[in-house]
UniProtKB/TrEMBL annotation:
The keyword Transferase applies. GO terms for molecular function: transaminase activity. The lineage of its organism: Bacteria, Pseudomonadati, Pseudomonadota, Alphaproteobacteria, Parvularculales. Its EC number is 2.6.1.-. Its cofactor is pyridoxal 5'-phosphate. Pfam families: Aminotran_1_2. Residues 32-392 form the Aminotransferase class I/classII large domain. It comes from Hyphococcus lacteus. PROSITE patterns: AA_TRANSFER_CLASS_1. It catalyses: L-aspartate + 2-oxoglutarate = oxaloacetate + L-glutamate. This is Aminotransferase. Keywords: Aminotransferase, Pyridoxal phosphate, Transferase.
Length: 400
């Protein structure tokens, strides 16, 4: 009989992937479903990136590469960190892996010992706690709720640090809330971290380029250069360049950590897809102006969704600075009853009844560690979003 490892028993399948799959299954069964569960841009990968991949195939760039990335891509990443973040890395300090997810996981595998603690602000991206559990560590979940605009306060960070703290995972703009930290807010946190030299910083900057209203993105190693030697600055092609399926994530960090991560990769995944790596060189070195046009479209959708959700009875929705998510509260619906007599007792019941009644798929807040909320991805066509929000309004109005 099959018997899972102890490590596997500690974790659950990704709830966002499960929600996306549930919506896909219902659609395949013929139901009229609008999925607001996806964590990916609905835009296509830019043509100049696709062309670079096709050229790579034609030119025979189809073999194993250096384990943690081709030299051309590492150079493009060095230039990106300099250009966008004012960070100086040597190519030896760059790692490339099959997705941002793999970068984060490799870093944890390379550094975690049993019982090591990792501070994770909640709501969090679903994979952080489970990755920590897989590597034998202990996730320390620290609330960063609506009252602080879903941002961790320096006081809460200070209180969570113990002698066993190994990493602090920082994610701005955030999945699932879209909240992004200003330079001053980042500095308030890095000031705390500077007092605790044993704590390393994993900065997940995957949504760096998706910000609105002239928001200025800032990352910890840039704000506090003294943290450079213990910060892994993580980014990738998935969200900025609409390349989720290509599987390219990357990071810059201190040489010993980057080398340790390459060692992990050499005995597990080996290199990220060679073709995707050449495509990413084009993405990073190419004209970045399409990003602004895409952000304009995202911003219009954000504003539409925030307004329409706030018009739904029992729903309150903040207007976040970035990413393509909003994280509305459904507190005002808790305790109410659907016309079929189901009592909304949690955000999980809220989203499952919403799916049943109106065919709108969203992800319940408990999956991200903060209830009663739900995550709506607005990486969908504007008309579809309008339709979905009308359905949510109808659903909440039907509750008694
Ligand atoms: N970090 C955050 C905050 C994300 O939202 C995601 C994707 O959903 C990732 C990392 C992983 O990205 P990738 O698809 O490159 O593995």
């Amino acid at each position: 009989t099959f018997s899972p490892s102890d490590a596997l028993s500690r974790i659950k399948p990704s709830p966002t992937m499960a929600a996306t799959q549930a919506a896909r299954d219902l659609k395949a069964a013929g139901r009229d479903i609008i999925s607001l569960g996806a964590g990916e841009p609905d835009f296509d990968t830019p043509d100049f990136v696709k062309d670079a991949a096709i050229n790579a195939i034609r030119n025979g760039k189809t073999k194993y590469t250096a384990v943690d990335g081709i030299a051309e891509l590492k150079q493009a990443i060095v230039a990106k960190f300099k250009r966008d973040n004012g960070l100086d890395y040597d190519t030896t300090q760059i790692t490339v892996a099959p997705g941002g997810k793999a970068v984060l996981y490799n870093a944890l595998v390379a550094t975690m010992n049993r019982g090591d603690e990792v501070i994770i602000p909640a709501p969090y991206w679903v994979s952080y706690p489970d990755m920590v559990l897989l590597t034998g560590g202990k996730p320390i979940i620290v609330a960063a709720g609506a009252e602080s605009n879903f941002k961790l306060t320096p006081e809460a960070l200070e209180k969570a640090i113990t002698p066993k703290t190994k990493w602090f995972i920082f994610n701005s703009p955030s999945n699932p809330t879209g909240a992004a930290y200003t330079r001053e807010e980042v500095k308030a946190l890095t000031d705390v971290l500077l007092k605790h030299p044993h704590v390393w910083v994993m900065s997940d900057d995957m949504y760096e380029h998706i910000v609105y209203d002239n928001f200025e993105f800032a990352t910890p190693a840039q704000v506090a250069p003294k943290l450079y030697d213990r910060t892994l600055t993580v980014n990738g092609a998935s969200k900025a360049y609409a390349m989720t399926g290509w599987r390219i994530g990357f990071a810059g960090g201190p040489l010993p950590l980057i080398k340790a991560m390459a060692k992990v990769m050499s005995q597990s995944t080996s290199n990220a897809c060679s073709i995707s790596q050449y495509a990413s060189v084009a993405a990073l070195n190419g004209d970045q102006s399409f990003l602004a046009a895409r952000n304009d479209a995202f911003k219009t959708r954000r504003d539409l969704v925030v307004e329409m959700l706030n018009d739904a009875t029992g729903i309150e929705c903040a207007r976040p600075e970035g990413a393509f998510y909003v994280y509305p509260s459904c507190a005002g619906t808790i305790g109410k009853k659907t016309p079929e007599g189901v009592i909304i007792d949690s955000d999980e019941t809220f989203t499952s009844e919403l799916l049943n009644a109106e065919g709108v798929a969203a992800v319940f807040g408990a999956a991200f560690g903060l209830s009663p909320f739900f995550r709506v991805s607005y990486a969908a066509a504007t008309e579809e979003l309008r339709d979905a929000c009308t359905r949510i309004q109808r659903f909440t109005a039907s509750l008694q």
